[in-house]
Amino acid sequence: MRARAVLGSLLFLLVAPGVVAGLIPWWLTGWTAAGDVPPVLVIAGAALVVAGSAVLLHAFARFALEGLGTPAPVAPTVHLVVGGLYRHVRNPMYLAVGATILGQALILDRPGLLVYLLAFALAVAAFVHGYEEPALERSFGAEYDAYRRSVPAWLPRLRGR
């Protein structure tokens, strides 16, 4: 079961975040900078891309190893994922993808990527509110309600749950 969860999570990682934070930004920019980008923007952007990528990999690993499933709605976890970074914020994957897109916008000095980031954020917020939270409540009931009450959705807290 664990091997299938790892494989499914890796596949979903390539498909969902790979497209959202990789293919679409490449399609929008061709990975070319708008001009001479100040080094401070490149450094800040690179830090966001690296941090976002690390958080994303951590979150996907949590889904496979702790939850015994994937982030994909078609192959959900058996257990509610509440460990690791999920002790600090309920949506680290979405925040990581957003950080990666923001980092790309800074590295390339491309305001169009900021518009794309806003569209991504609005779509994610609607998805979380309209589908994900109700689905988690149906699947995990009181356990998810307690988790939702004790861990913020979007602004990470420093201490764990």
How would you describe this protein?
The chain has 161 residues and is mainly alpha-helical. It has one domain. Helix content is 70%, strand content 0%. It is built from four helices and no strands. α3 runs antiparallel to α4. The longest helix is centred in the last third of the chain and has 40 residues, at 111-150. It is globular and about 50 Å long. The mean pLDDT is 95.
Descriptive key words:
mainly alpha, single chain, 161 residues
| Average of per-residue pLDDT values | 95
Structural class by secondary-structure content: mainly alpha
**Helix proportion:** 55-70%
Ends apart, CA distance between termini: 28 Å
Give, in order, the helices and strands. Answer: HHHH
Largest sheet: none
How big is the Rg? Answer: 16 Å
Strand residues, percent: under 5%
The helix tally amounts to 4
Number of strands: 0
Which spans have pLDDT < 50 for at least 5 consecutive residues? none
Overall tally of structural domains: 1
* Shape call: globular
Give the structure's gist in a few sentences:
The protein is mainly α and 161 residues long.
